[in-house]
Design a protein that fits this description.
It contains six helices and four strands; from the N terminus they run ααβαβαβααβ. By secondary structure, it is an alpha+beta fold. The protein has one domain (about 20-155): NADH Oxidase (3-Layer(aba) Sandwich). The longest helix has 18 residues, at about 95-110. The chain is globular.
Length: about 180
């Protein structure tokens, strides 16, 4: 089987991580793959913020947990030591799709390197908040960018989940005029 297709079929969302930090070279390789995601008219209307600082990671986790309405003991980043935040340029018509493709490429690249990942939502709400805008401003990023998602990264702590069976009613073939 083709290695890319094999990776697509094998990649799973990981929801339990070891605390070990991923080497910077591997994080950079994953980010670089995300920067090559397909995007509308080649505009590259996305940004990636790599968070490896534990204090900021925990601050983002707390914001995310509050938005989700979970108990204080819950970590919506599942203990992952790295958070890659994908932002989309709000004025660009395909920013949401472009950012989603970046997220997919980040997760596939991570899998190919033996790193677990999971897409965590609520980045939009985080970076619409005053605290989130303050974080963006500290990086020189204006309010013209919207949070698409968090790609959490880490070494899986446990076995990789098996894929669910694929539903049978998801593909329609048209091989003659309708």
């Amino acid at each position: 089987m083709n290695e890319i297709i094999k990776g697509i079929k094998e990649r799973r969302s990981i929801r339990k991580y070891k605390s070990d930090m991923i080497p910077k070279e591997i994080i950079d390789e994953i980010i670089d793959a995300g920067l090559y995601a397909a995007n509308g008219r080649g505009h590259q209307a996305t940004k990636i913020i790599a968070v490896t600082d534990r204090a900021l990671r925990d601050r983002l986790m707390e914001m995310n947990r509050e938005i989700g309405g979970w108990d204080e003991s819950f970590d919506p980043f599942y203990g992952a030591p790295v958070v890659l935040i994908v932002l989309g340029e709000k004025s660009w018509p395909t920013y949401l799709y472009d950012g989603s493709l970046v997220m997919g490429d980040l997760m596939l690249a991570a899998h190919s390197l033996g790193i677990g990942s999971c897409w965590i939502h609520r980045a939009k709400q985080e970076f619409e908040s005053e605290e989130g805008k303050k974080i963006l401003r500290s990086l020189g990023i204006s309010d013209d960018w919207e949070g698409i998602g968090h790609c959490i990264l880490g070494y899986p702590d446990g076995s990789i989940p098996e894929p669910a069976d694929r539903k049978t009613d998801r593909v329609y073939e048209i091989d003659k005029p309708i």
